[in-house]
Each structure stands twice: as structure tokens, then as C-alpha cells.
Write a structure and sequence with these properties.
Blueprint: H1 2-8, E1 15-18, E2 24-25, E3 28-29, E4 35-38, H2 52-68, H3 70-73, E5 81-85, H4 89-100, E6 104-109, H5 112-121, H6 125-128, E7 137-141, E8 152-155, H7 162-169, E9 178-181, H8 194-201, E10 206-211, H9 216-222, E11 225-229, H10 233-245, E12 249-253, H11 256-280, H12 282-302, H13 307-311, H14 313-324, H15 329-338, H16 346-350, H17 355-369, H18 375-384, H19 390-398
Parallel strand pairs: 5-6, 5-8, 6-7, 8-9, 9-10, 11-12
Antiparallel strand pairs: 1-4, 2-3, 10-11
């Protein structure tokens, strides 16, 4: 390239073509709107017989010049700084992992007292004790974060806290920032999926979702396999590389609807399995989990999700991890509900937020709105509301449906 530029004296013009990535779905091509943007021309002195060293020097100068125009041409800004909103176990773990990947990280706490404690001890003893916060993680309150200079905003708060979090920071997230949502469940009161809720309330360049069976402590100490979902192919590649540098294995998909609803199905099915198991044993636990998972799967298909997402790591894999994890909040909550403990007392006994308790009623409403026949999820909702007992709920799907077929005459 450098030799051609020197010998011809012609300018080198960077040209960005965006939009073509949406033209192909499998083997089907369709017309799409394409944007072509030309950058500033790069000119070099003409030389009839440039030496190889001179030609190489010109070639190596061209790309840095293009990089200066990268964002204007339509390229994604490089990920150098991050702000993590939410200093619970997962938020703290993600702050540590992003710092490990080379980013400058701000960990945003809800209160000044929490920020002072974490900054003084360099450890989140309440939620992730034993994991050190290195100097690359600056602990602060959410209100003190300068979002104008943040490339990646990570939302690591429970779904029922997303409206308040977006109310505080949504307008501050700039157009050049990317948002990564790590919340699992549905956002009240309408039951919106987390990434869709965030996309509607920020000016962010792009929104991605992080799911999969990633227990916070294990992810920091031993790594984990996670699911990254975004419809932006360029962002998907950037985040894959970033999370790999953090020590995570990444499975990526463009099926955001499927990935987010698979997480909902996992939470609800894990709660259902533990509740049914505590009331009636492991066989019924499997039936409860399978029925709830299948009902939410049908909801996902009607909303554009794909079956392979549910069958993979985002759904079935995450469900298995949650069902066998000794420290699973949803599993412990289900066991308490199955033993007859009122659902409003469960969070206090578990000691942490239990996503499934808030997710199940919203899923029940969404299933009814879409006309999906979901008797087991509906029954689980009535159980959480205290309108039925664990034993009564179990009987609704343990008893064979319909009259038994008669024996064939001999």
C-alpha cells in the first residue's frame, strides 16, 4: 500500500461501509440501507522508486491515521474505561474481571458508607469476601461517576432495581458508550426484558446482555463460561475479546430475546424444582422444572427467541448449574417455599435478593398476555401469593391429565 501511494502520488482515502452486515440471514439475502462514509484523504510525497524501507514506513503510518478517524467513520470506540453499577457479588466480580482485562474500572456503590468501607478495606467482605480489589478498581458512589468518559457501562443490579438505577444514570450515559446488562429476570411493572428496558432509556451506542451459569466467586477464582448476547456483530467481537482477556470463556449469540427469557426460565424452573422437591420429592421436582421451563420456552418462541438458545448454556446449562449449586439463592428460596414459608419472609431468611420471587409473577402475566397455556407457572405464582399450599400445587401436575385409557380387550 505504501509503495503504491508513493509511486502514484494518489491520496489514500479511508472508506467505511456499514449496514451490509444485516443483509444476510443464513443463505437469504435481502435489501438493506447501507451507509458509505469517506474519511480525510492521506497524502504522501511522490517517489518514482521508493525503497522498501520507505514504503514500509508509509504503510505503517496509514493505519494510525485511520484510527484517529475510526469513530467518525462509524467504528466502535475502543474499550478502555468501565463503570460497574451495583456493588453486590456479581458487580464486584465483574469489576475485578474487567480490571484484570486491562480496563480502568469505577465500581459504583449505592451509598457513601458502602463506598468508604470497600475503599478502605479493598474488599467486599459482605458479598465477595476474600477477593481483593486492586488499585485499577476505583470505588465510588454512583452519583460521583463521570459517565462522559466511560466506554463501557455495566449494570449489575437486580431487575427490580433497574428502574431506579436507570432513573439515576440513564440520561448520563453518552452516545459513544456501550451498556452491558447483567440483570436476570424481568423488569417490573410491565415485565420488560432487562436489555430492552435499558435500550429504551439510554442513548447508548449499543446494548448487550451477559448471562449463563457464572457464579461470582467461581468466575473470579477459576473462570466461568458465560453467554454474551447482542445484535451488534462488531460489539460482539469486541466484548468477546475483552471477556476472554478477563479469563472467561464466551458463547455469543444475536438471540437477545431467547437469552434473556432463558435466564427467566432458569430462575423460575429452579425455584419450582426446589419447592416441589421439598414438598414431594425429586421425581416431582424434575416434573415441575421441566414443565415451567417448557412453558417459558413457548413464550420465547412467540416473541422471536430460538429453541437452540434454551437448549444451550443460557437455558439448560444455567438451570443445571443453579439446581446443583449449594449456595444458589433460587434453590434455597424454593426449598423454603416448599416447606410452607410465606414468600415475603424468604428474602430475609436467604439474606440476598432472590430473582425468581419477582420474576414468576411477571412471567405469569406475560404468559397470559401471549395466550400460552402455562398451568404449572400459574400455579407456582398462586403458591408464592399464598393462595395455595405446596401440596395442592404439586397435585395439579402430578395427577395424570385426562381419564386413563381403557385396556384393550383380549
Amino acid at each position: 500500500m505504501g509503495r503504491l501511494a508513493l509511486e502514484s502520488g494518489a491520496p489514500v482515502v479511508p472508506v467505511a461501509v456499514t449496514g451490509t452486515e444485516h443483509a444476510r440471514r443464513g443463505w437469504i439475502f435481502r435489501p438493506v440501507r447501507v451507509k458509505v462514509r469517506c474519511g480525510r484523504p492521506l497524502t504522501f510525497p511522490r517517489a518514482e522508486k521508493p525503497s522498501p524501507a520507505l514504503a514500509d514506513a508509509v504503510t505503517t503510518r496509514i493505519w494510525p491515521c485511520i484510527q484517529l478517524q475510526w469513530e467518525w467513520l462509524g467504528g466502535l470506540p475502543p474499550l478502555r474505561t468501565a463503570a460497574v453499577i451495583g456493588a453486590g457479588s456479581m458487580g464486584t466480580a465483574l469489576a475485578v474481571l474487567l480490571e484484570r482485562a486491562g480496563l480502568e474500572v469505577q465500581l459504583g456503590c449505592r451509598t457513601a458508607a458502602q463506598a468508604r468501607s470497600l475503599a478502605a478495606h479493598r474488599e467486599n467482605s459482605k458479598h465477595l469476601g476474600g477477593v481483593a480489589l486492586l488499585d485499577g478498581v476505583r470505588v465510588t458512589t454512583v452519583s460521583e461517576i463521570e459517565f462522559a468518559g466511560v466506554d463501557l457501562v455495566v449494570l449489575a443490579v437486580p431487575c427490580d432495581a433497574l428502574p431506579a438505577a436507570l432513573g439515576q444514570v440513564g440520561v448520563l450515559v453518552g452516545e459513544r458508550s456501550t451498556v452491558l446488562v447483567a440483570s436476570k429476570g424481568l423488569v417490573p411493572p410491565l415485565g420488560t426484558t432487562p436489555a430492552a428496558f435499558v435500550a429504551e432509556r439510554t442513548r447508548a451506542r449499543a446494548v448487550a446482555y451477559l448471562g449463563g451459569p457464572a457464579h461470582a466467586r467461581e468466575a473470579v477464582n477459576a473462570g466461568a463460561t458465560v453467554v454474551l448476547a447482542t445484535r451488534d456483530a462488531d460489539l460482539r467481537r469486541d466484548l468477546e475479546a475483552l471477556l476472554a482477556d478477563a479469563g472467561l470463556c464466551v458463547e455469543s449469540t444475536d438471540d437477545m430475546t431467547g437469552a434473556e427469557l432463558a435466564a427467566c426460565a432458569k430462575n423460575a424452573a429452579a425455584l419450582a424444582a426446589a419447592a416441589a422437591g421439598a414438598a414431594a420429592g425429586p421425581n416431582v421436582a424434575g416434573a415441575a422444572a421441566g414443565r415451567v421451563f417448557a412453558e417459558v420456552h413457548e413464550l420465547a418462541l412467540r416473541e422471536g427467541g430460538r429453541s437452540e438458545t434454551f437448549a444451550g448454556l443460557a437455558g439448560a446449562g444455567d438451570l443445571v448449574a443453579t439446581a446443583i449449586a449449594q449456595g444458589s439463592r433460587n434453590r434455597r428460596a424454593g426449598e423454603l417455599v416448599g416447606q410452607g414459608v410465606p414468600s415475603d419472609r424468604v428474602p430475609g431468611l436467604v439474606g440476598q435478593t432472590v430473582e425468581a420471587l419477582a420474576t414468576v409473577p411477571l412471567l405469569d402475566a406475560a404468559l397470559r398476555d401471549e395466550g400460552v397455556d402455562a398451568p404449572v407457572t400459574a400455579g407456582l405464582c398462586t403458591l408464592l401469593e399464598g393462595r395455595t399450599t405446596p401440596e395442592e400445587w404439586v397435585e395439579t401436575f402430578r395427577t395424570p391429565q385426562g381419564a386413563p385409557r381403557s385396556r384393550r380387550a383380549a
